[in-house]
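Protocol step 4 of 6.
Sequence for Cold-responsive protein kinase 1 (Mucuna pruriens) entered exactly as in the expression construct, tag removed. Do not edit the line below.
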Amino acid sequence: MQSQALNLKDGTNLDLASFSTTWLKSEPPCAASYLFPPSLPSHDTHLQNLHKSHPQIRDPRIFYLSRGMKIPCSFCTCFSATVEEQTKHEKPEEDNDGNFRIFTYRELYSATRGFHPSEKVGEGGFGSVYKGQLRDGSLVAVKVLSIELDSLRGEKEFVAELSTLANIKHQNLVILRGCCVEAAHRYIVYDYMENNSLRHTFLDSEQSRMRFSWEARRGVSIGVASVLAFLHEELKPHIVHRDIKSSNVLLDRNFTPKVSDFGLAKLLRDEKSYISTQVAGTLGYVAPDYASSGHLTRKSDVYSFGVLLLEIVSGQRVVDAHQVMERFIVERVWAAYEANDVLRMVDPVLNSNFPVEEAKRFLIVGLCCVQETARLRPRMPEVVDMLSNNFDIGDFSISRPGFVDDLRNARMRRQMNSSEESSATAATFGDSSGWSTSNLAR
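Step 5 output, structure tokens:
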């Protein structure tokens, strides 16, 4: 076959004989993306406008290659079939129940206005979150995973795990809408929550805290406790959240709490049964036992919830950088408890408009959850019961809480200890592990 040259408007020269042969041997989406790379989002709008003005054209990209060009019939047939095949691949996919979708990068790029900084609504341990609006007008939250690609599961496993997580339903879980797995892109799409996170909406200022009555705080506390009890006890196998904190508790238009980022540890290539050389979590919320061993358990979540509960009742941040003494909320509440004056920790913006005994019970339940010894902490179903029902706290015994006071140093020392273990220069973890953890004993 004689070589036939095709000159495109941008000056590109294509050898049709060799190009069509190569194209037929390759996968259609790859060939089509050669001419129309998905990294050029500006093409989308232009192609849509062209389609409106020429509705008879099934795919507007044919327009460019057919007008003013004499193209061999075999090439046009090959091209048309390839574009049609690519269209199938670009169309968002859904699972059988229609809840979980595979989004294209172009969709998410367009929805977030090119991941514009003004659309950024949050940032967590797994990545940044952007507000987006899909073509049907629905709002979504797009999480851009910041984890290295090599650390994540392969594409099929990644999608399978997320699809499984999307089928986990609870009134206090954020709905997982889908994901994007094109090339190096790894994005997760959730329902958008109108009232942002508990950290942003509740703890932003004294004025924002005034919007949260005691009834609202009770509802948020029991809601989060209920969904953790569900993840820990009702699911088989159970899920440990590993990063419970105020910024991972989102609020819908009715201020119903919705926990996000659940199960994301399952996306990692090597979970090692929740044992990690780099402890994940946020300073103030990380359980000391998790910090000292690297072993994540359900009791680690219980500790984090206890900190969150103290935060909700008191209206105080977990870590107060302005405090020289008692920087951590567990320190401040424990000091009030020892002084037999725990009610002084109730948020003053409530102006005494709260049930005294219930507020006291919530604070004591919070202290139960943050005890340094993990086995002494209650299970989450027990926490739900204690928060929902009256129980006698008169003779309730609570041991001192523990906390991690330097997470950066803790992570470094944990990695050092792991290296020492692997080289057989150190054999045990424990008090000599070098972790910067504290007990509140005076």
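Step 6, annotate. The two ends are 90 Å apart (CA to CA).
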